[in-house]
Design goal:
By secondary structure, the chain is of the alpha/beta class. 50% of the residues lie in helices and 15% in strands. A hairpin with a 2-residue loop joins β2 and β3. The relative contact order is 0.14. The chain binds iron/sulfur cluster.
């Protein structure tokens, strides 16, 4: 199966966390169906984030006008009582389409854990309906939207870069707003790179001619907090350098960089029980027979 090299922020995160995990996600998953299945496992907080993103996307694809409070509550109820309830049952039943890490690895889920995930979804969607972005995007009109959950790509030198863009739209005064919805509690360590990468894409597409025409907005929905980051040319140059260096580090481990071919033995495992305990691939690194005959590393 063809597997071209494409840099992304999640690929970088995976690489710096554990090289073996990176190998499974970006190489073994392309030819091994069991690795592919494990790669797709979700987990409670991640799941809450996916439900929020999918609900917002479905809502925005249909709507032209701001929703009433009754309509907002109906969307939230449906996300929790229909979507989440159905996916939970699917995961418990061992579905190949949707499976939670907690079910796959028989991690006990307390009622409180479920309440937290549901709480993230409810708070995030309420904030989405309240925030300025929704009113502004609807006022701009769908004709001015540039992206809605699109997987976009651009080049940094010879490196193809992949990104998901939650929402981008033009405003009547000639600016472009790029929005990223987040459901976590803390700022991601690579947010500055992510924002600059959005800008690089916007320039490549000709959306703006000057960085001052661009606004990048990180919406922390569960915290009801919005961060708008200032961008300048040095920030864009730093992002390009970061991506080029990260891609070079990844390619340095390949058996055949031109063919993007990797060997498992070149990608070492880590010795960090806290990370392995929550890793989708822990069964591959610590098979059951090893677990039964040797002390677990966690
Ligand atoms: S279980 Fe640990 S060593 Fe194995 S891939 Fe996951 S993080 Fe890496």
């Amino acid at each position: 199966m063809e597997n071209p090299f494409r840099w992304s922020i999640s690929r970088h995160d995976s690489f710096v966390t554990c090289q073996r995990r990176y190998y499974y996600s970006y190489y073994a998953a392309s030819f091994d169906s069991e690795v592919r299945r494990l790669k797709r496992l979700s987990a409670l907080p991640l799941w809450a984030g996916s439900v929020v993103h999918e609900t917002i996307e479905a809502f925005l694809r249909e709507r032209r006008l701001p929703p009433t409070v009754t309509e907002q509550e109906a969307v939230i109820r449906s996300a929790v009582h229909e979507k989440m309830a159905a996916e939970w049952r699917e995961s418990e039943g061992g579905s190949l389409r949707f499976r939670l890490f907690e079910h796959e690895y028989e991690v006990p889920v307390e009622a409180e854990d479920k309440k937290i995930a549901v709480g993230i979804v409810i708070r995030s969607l309420r904030q989405f309906f309240r925030a300025e972005t929704l009113a502004e995007a609807l006022a701009a009109g769908h004709a001015r939207w540039r992206s809605l959950e699109d997987l976009v790509s651009f080049q940094v030198g010879d490196v193809g870069v992949l990104m998901r863009m939650d929402l981008a739209y033009g405003t009547s005064d000639g600016r472009v707003v790029i929005v990223d919805w987040k459901t976590g509690r803390s700022e991601g360590r690579n947010n500055a790179i992510q924002v600059a990468a959005y800008a690089l894409y916007a320039f490549e597409k000709g959306w703006v001619r000057d960085v001052s025409q661009l606004r990048t907005r990180l919406e922390y929905l569960a915290l009801a907090r919005t961060i708008e980051r200032e961008l300048d040319q040095p920030a864009l140059d730093r992002a390009r350098d970061f991506i080029a260096k990260s891609a070079a580090d990844m390619r340095a481990l390949l058996a055949d960089p031109a063919a993007n071919r990797a060997r498992i033995e070149d990608f070492s495992r880590i010795d960090r029980p806290q990370v392995c305990r929550r890793c989708n691939y822990r069964r591959l690194c610590f098979p059951r027979h090893e677990i039964e005959t040797a002390p677990l590393p966690f």
